[in-house]
UniProtKB/TrEMBL annotation:
It comes from Streptacidiphilus jiangxiensis. Transmembrane segments: none annotated. It holds the Pfam family Lactamase_B_2. Residues 49-260 form the Metallo-beta-lactamase domain. May be involved in the transport of PQQ or its precursor to the periplasm. The gene is pqqB. Belongs to the PqqB family. One of its GO terms (biological process) is pyrroloquinoline quinone biosynthetic process. This is Coenzyme PQQ synthesis protein B. Keywords: PQQ biosynthesis, Transport. The keyword Transport applies. Pathway: Cofactor biosynthesis; pyrroloquinoline quinone biosynthesis.
Length: 295
């Protein structure tokens, strides 16, 4: 299985357009590597590619990946479709950019499919296939030698949804498998809690791409007591006794990589103490454009 990290930042990217914090200033000045919003491409045969989430930066991300270039016919594309972990704007606003692309399929839970922005408008250009995946259900085959299962992680709906179903499968992990080789990838860029189910998912893959939005719970400020959980917006922080990094110590044989980094995350500076600690723990943070080969 080939895995392309097209983008590795949280909503807003890095630097974020309206942020003049020291990290964003340094990125804007070219002194720290910038990151586009999280998006991954996977393939089993190098001919058919599937996107995991469709970021608003998709146009630039596709241009930067020769594997995803169109051809040989004038309108041929190796892109077969998009799998979504959730319906958040930073994971779905790339879909309208693909409008008019014939034969594309979008797969996600029915809750997420029902909330995709501009879905009806997209179908007016060229009807797509919208395939509902059941959390915990059977593996769904993807053209090109891969399969997917979806695993519910949370029920936090995007802000733009009116009166969302509180019990909906709003946030999931995607497990991409390659039956021919036994390779497996876990993609989970959003989770608010480390659960036994998530632990088992990480244990069962070669490589896990995980929510690295915030290094610490108070990264967005701690002015209001008790507001911590809300301020970290449903994202479990990396550090601290209950953070994701301590849970990841249980899985030394899995390749563990953080993605979906917020522009406030000190890890964005490779020279930071936090980055040194991460390396010592055997967990990675990779630049946009990195290709991984599994197993
Ligand atoms: C999130 O990751 O929590 C969402 O993308 C937040 C947002 O963009 O509103
Ligand atoms: Mn996000
Ligand atoms: Zn910033």
């Amino acid at each position: 299985m080939r895995v392309l990290l097209l983008g590795t930042a949280a909503g807003g990217g890095f630097p974020q357009w309206n942020c003049a914090c020291p990290l964003c200033r340094r990125a804007r000045a070219g002194r720290l590597p910038g990151r586009t919003q999280d998006c991954v491409a996977v393939s089993g045969d190098s001919r058919s590619w599937w996107l995991l989430n469709a970021s608003p930066d998709l146009g630039a991300q596709l241009l930067a990946a020769p594997e995803l270039a169109p051809g040989p016919g004038p309108r041929d594309t190796p892109l077969r479709g998009v799998l979504l972990t959730d319906a958040e704007a930073d994971h779905t606003l790339g879909l309208p950019l693909l409008r008019g692309g014939p034969g594309l399929e979008v797969l996600a839970t029915s809750t997420v499919l029902g909330a995709v922005p501009l879905r009806d408008a997209i179908d007016r250009y060229t009807p797509w296939r919208w395939t509902a995946l059941v959390p915990g259900g059977a593996a769904h085959e993807l053209v090109g030698g891969l399969s997917v299962t979806v695993h519910q992680l949370g029920s936090k709906a995007p802000k733009f949804v009116d009166s969302p179903a509180t019990d909906g499968s709003w946030v999931s992990a995607l497990r991409i498998a390659e039956p021919a080789t036994g390779a497996a990838l876990l993609y989970a860029p959003c989770f608010g809690r480390w659960t036994p189910a998530l632990d088992a998912l990480v244990a069962g893959v070669d490589c896990a791409l995980l929510d690295g939005t915030f290094l610490s719970a108070d990264e967005l400020g701690t002015r209001a007591p008790g507001a911590r959980a809300q301020r970290s917006m449903g994202h479990l922080p990396i550090s601290g006794p209950d953070g994701s990094l301590s849970a990841l110590a249980r899985h030394p044989r899995v390749r563990r990589i953080y993605t979906h980094l917020n522009n406030t995350n000190p890890l964005l500076d490779p020279a930071s103490a936090a980055h040194t600690e991460l390396k010592a723990a055997g967990v990675e943070l990779l630049p946009d454009g990195t290709e991984l080969a599994l197993p």
